[in-house]
Every structure is written in C-alpha cells, then in structure tokens.
C-alpha cells in the first residue's frame, strides 16, 4: 500500500468504527431513557402494588415477600440502568476521538498479526468477538507505551506474552476527523508529543493518555510496591503520571477498589481544583482529595488551632528581623526531624511510667472525680499493658463512676431547683412515656385490687402512683441531661490533659533529656521551649508542632486508623516531614503509598529527600517493599528554559530537556526606579498577550511581595490582573500575581519573576524558591532585577539567557519621582 492508500484505509476504518459507535449509541439511547422511566415508575407505584395486611401471620408473610420482590426488581432495574448509562457515557466519549494509537503485534508461535487500536475505553463489534478499540489500561496496550517496533513482550495475569511489534502508529483525531498520523520508530512519536507540548497552558490539567512515556508507564502500572517513590525533575509529569495511575488502578481492580478508597494529598486546595478534571476526562470518578492541613484540623478538633503551613512559610521568608527568628527556624527543623520522632517515642515510654496528666471532672463547682483519684486508679493497672489500653480501662472506670454519681444526684437540691425551670414539653414527654407504660400499670393495679379483695382499695399502698413516677422520671431526665456532657468528655478522652502532656516536654533541657531518654537538644532550646509554650497558652500550635502533637495524643489515646483506604498518593512529597509520613502510614494501615516529589523544589524547612539512601521514606515499609523511580526528562518547559533552570541546581545537569525550542530566558535590568521596574513588566505582559499567551504569572517570593506588586502594577494601569492568595480556590486563566509557594505544581505559558535581585534571592535557602518559580514556565521566562542579580542568576553561563537593558517610560508618568521610588 502506498502512503496515501494507507491513510485512506485508516480514514475508512475510522469512519467504520465511528459508525459502529453511533449505531450503539442509537441503540442505547432509548434503552437508557426507557430503563430510567421504568425504575422511576416502579418507585412511584411501589406501595400501590403492596397491600399490607397484618391480620394473620400468612397475610403478613405475603406482604413481606411482595415488598422484597418489588425492591429486588427495582434494584435490578437500577443496576441495569447504571450499566447502560456507563456504556452510553463511554461510547459518547469515544465518538469524537475513538482511539489515538495503533500497534500491530505478532505473537510468538502464532502466524497472525493483530491490529490493536488504543483509546480511553474498550469497544467491541456487535457480536462482542473483536475489539475495535482496546482500553489503554489493558495488558496488551502497554506495548504501545513500552516498545518501538521490534521484539516486545507484555505482562498478563496468565503470564508474559512475547512477540514482535510490527507497526506503531499515532493518530491525531479531532471531532471524528483524522487530521494526521505518524509512524513512530523509537519512542512514542515525538511528533505528537511536540504538538501536545507546544499548546498553551490551561486552567485545568490535561490527561496525557495518548503520549504516556515509557518511564511514566512504569509508574502508572506498578502494582507490586507497597511504597512507590517517584523523584522527578520539575515538569517531568509526576502529577500527570499519578492521575493516570489512579485511573489504571481503578480499572485493574474495579471489582475490589472504588474511587472513594483512594486519597490524594495535594499541596493546597487550588491545586485540587487544577487537577480535578483529569479523571472524569478518563471516564473515572474523582478520588478523595485533601491537604494534610485539613487532616490536622479535623483531628485536632476545635480546642487548638494549628498554624497554616503557608503562614509558616511566609514567616520564614519575611520575619528575618524579628526577635526569636533563629530559634523558630531551629525549632522547625528539629521538630520535623527523625531525631524528634525518636525522642517522642521514648517520651511515650516515660509517659507510660509516670507522666500522664489528668484533668479532674468538675460538676457545678464540685470536683466529682479529682485528677489525683484518676492517677491513683491509673497506677493500679498492670504496667505491662500498653498505655492506650490502660487509658481505655480508666475510661471505663470513669464511665462507671459517673453512672453511680448520676444515681446519687437524683435527689440533690439542685435537681429540685431545675425541676422548677422545666417547660411544658418536658412534662409532655414524660407523660407520653408513662402513658406508654399504662397497660403495665393497669395490670399492676388490677393485681393489687385482687390482692385486696373484699377490702377497700388503698391507693397509697402498693398501687402505682403516677405523680411519684412522673417526678422520678423528670428528675432522672434532668440529671441525665446534666451528665451528658461529662460522659461525652470522658468518651473523647478529655480527662487526659494532652496539652499539658505536650507542654511538659518543653520545660527545660534537663527535663527534656530525662523524659526522652537523653535526646540531644538543638541550639536555642530555651527559646524554642518558650515560643512553643507561649503558643500553647494561646490555644494555638505552630505548624511544626501540629503533627508531633497529634502523635503524642495518639501515643496516649491509641492510633486513629482508616482501614477503608487502599491507595494513598502524596504529591509534592518532598514537602512532608518524616513525622508526617509516619503519621500517614499509621492512619492508613491497609494502603499502598505513592509519593511523588522533587527535592530540587524542596522549599519547606521540613523537607524530606525522597531518593537519598537514608531517606526516612525507604525505612517506612522497608527496602524490599519500596521501589524508587526517577524521572529526568522534563516536558513542561522549552529546551532553553530547562537549560537555564537546571543550571541553578547542583546536580541539575542530569535533567534532560525535551527538544522544543523558543526564546532564551530574558534577564531585564530595570534600574533603581520602582515605577520603571513595574513599567517594564507591564510592557512585557502586553507583548506576551499580543503574542497570544493567555496564562501569565508574575511570581513573587512572598505573599507580602505579591500584594505590593499587585498594587504597583495596578497603579501602572495593568488591567484584569488577579492577585492569588492562599484563600483562592479556583485556578483561572489570565494574568496573575502569585507567591512562589502557591504556584507549586501548576504551570503558565509565561512566567515573570517579579524581582530576581540579590536582595530577594540571596541566601542558599532561596535557590530552590527561585528554581521552583522559574520552572513554572512552559514557553517564556523573564526575570527582572533593579540592580544586582541574585547570585544564582549571576552564576549562570551567559549563553543561557538574553540580557535586555532598554529604557522604558512608566505608563503613569503623572506622579513625580519620590525618594521612596528609589531602592534602598
Ligand atoms: N507524557 C506526556 N505527554 C504529554 N504531556 C506531558 C507528558 N508528561 C508530562 N506532560 C506535561 O508536562 C507538564 C508537566 O507535567 P506535571 O505537572 O505532571 O509535572 P510534575 O513533574 O508534576 O511537575 P512539577 O513537579 O514541576 O510540579 C504538563 O503540562 C503535562 O501535561
């Protein structure tokens, strides 16, 4: 066949498959509507068809069976309807783009070459015998992602199948029309990838199903590791691969795992909205998404409010001049470290021996059960029992004590008083209750009357007295109501003073050492102690204390677990501490973990290196159950941007750029006049817009700088500018000012680093912040500085960028130049 014949053939096949799809749709539509109507009808007439007659046991039994039968029919219809709707949706999804790839595979020992067309779901011919389209998650489809032409094999549940790939073809199909096709030889056609990557940024992430790369496919299909760690360069497709992996696992384990048994921890709520369309695009339901902070807030309850990690970050970046800053930084570092985790484990032992602090139970200004009584009771339990078991015993004891006290209080004066405040409803309740008991009373009365046969019945003796019963019930209600909160507090372990238990760790160095089996304290310990206790006294927790606090709480009360969750995904995994991983492991004991991150973007102080030999992550489930995959190829940015950004990172030379070309990054020195600086940015934004770039981010180091930049740029007349803050929930296209730590994980057509001067990014710590900011750019990257460039920019080879030093007149020249317009 000539090439044009080949194309014609593919066009005809496409038309044929689309026709089959259309026919199926035409068949399904009336059925879908019909079944829905039938189910609705049955539901409506459900009770009409059932006559309930309970006069005899047989009648009752009959009614029971009719109801059962009706509800079974209804459930079946509804299940049938759901299945049809699923099929209908899947055919609908396939119609505009039935498949994106084809692979011709000849199995060893079989004289037949199968043409395998791959799309987002499977579709067979009318007889159900031939696959017109294979779901991309079927075993045979992995050939498409893993092999170029030549010998190839793939894994099936029945074992490995060997053979050879004779053709690998990619299609560009839009609205059912074949726009292009490429035969790929080596890797999956760079042509299609080029095409996909050259497109503009979106306000929502896209699925990469048609162009998944081999190393990404390994992540997606790994189904053995308990812990899968992915260390991948910026833009290497970690998040994309993670979402494809979710879709794969939901497909592979569709009988046993549902979407609500998977959780994804994402860096912030805005990121959650950014990725929320990928799974529905692949025909799967979204899984649960949360941030670690949401978990902390939930478990800590309302008693203590933990600081937001973004506020912690803002403090670290902006509070350098404040008293106690160095101590706080040391505290953040130490409280996230494995050393502190170890210290807390030892503290747990000590607590079990002597350290628990109890809170007495008070009631109406009386100490019902004192903390000393609790302590005495607690120490009567066998020390061989675990701490949570002994606390449970104490809880049981307290509930019993409360029950006895409740009984004793029935005739206390305060109850008498409370009775006066009861309203009509309370009396009515009691009356109803007594009325229900009436037959019993009547029998009792008759009995009493018979006993006194012949005698005048004496109602005061032996007979039931309603009034007395009523008062007793009312009293009981009053006391019960008053004791309810006490019981609830006991059930919620409020009799342990966790806050005091955590606080006693931070008394002084000697006490700390004694209680943690000699842990070595970090520098500034006294100040760290003071700061921690200050916060606790305001019922607040530093972010770095939140997870350790929960950890201590659980040492005492026992671990909270969620056994429903089967897969946990942690994106931006470098930003979690050893502590947080330990916590996640405990919380989800039946789950497999996938952690994706990039140590090059580790901008939080509690960062964890994912790929290091001594990484706490490897230790979590042990080396045998852990697999590490590295992604080195970056897909997001142009070659010029990747070459520029990777040179900022030590070891960055191993990052591989994808061959997509555009301008070199631009370095613009704006001079010391602030308004001129902003004018340059405004002018560049206009030009980028004119070139057709729709998503442009002006990235600052901090939220405070974002606010300032936003105001200044607006003053320069920049219109439709958005300010992104930690409260922003939705990610939209357009031009925005955003602090770097909120831009994590997302991407823009063009990135303008608002101020890349030495004053902003001068310390070693700033290197990764600047790297993270620059790597958000897909097509264009501009950096601005008034005077001196950041040392991380200065260190770059000059052939990696273009320098601009043109002049630019501020747009709003009306305001005269003030001294504050000049840089310090
Ligand atoms: N195989 C692929 N085919 C097409 N596009 C891809 C592929 N892999 C990644 N991309 C694209 O590259 C960009 C970066 O992907 P993604 O955000 O998943 O990377 P990441 O490693 O999570 O990045 P970062 O760590 O910098 O946030 C996205 O636009 C994504 O669509």
TrEMBL record:
PROSITE patterns: UVRD_HELICASE_ATP_BIND
One Gene Ontology molecular-function label: helicase activity
Any Pfam family the entry gives: UvrD-helicase
UvrD-like helicase ATP-binding domain sequence ranges: 211-638
Keywords carried by this UniProt record: ATP-binding, Helicase, Hydrolase, Nucleotide-binding
Binding residue positions for ATP: 232-239
Protein name: DNA helicase
Organism annotation: Paenibacillus silvae
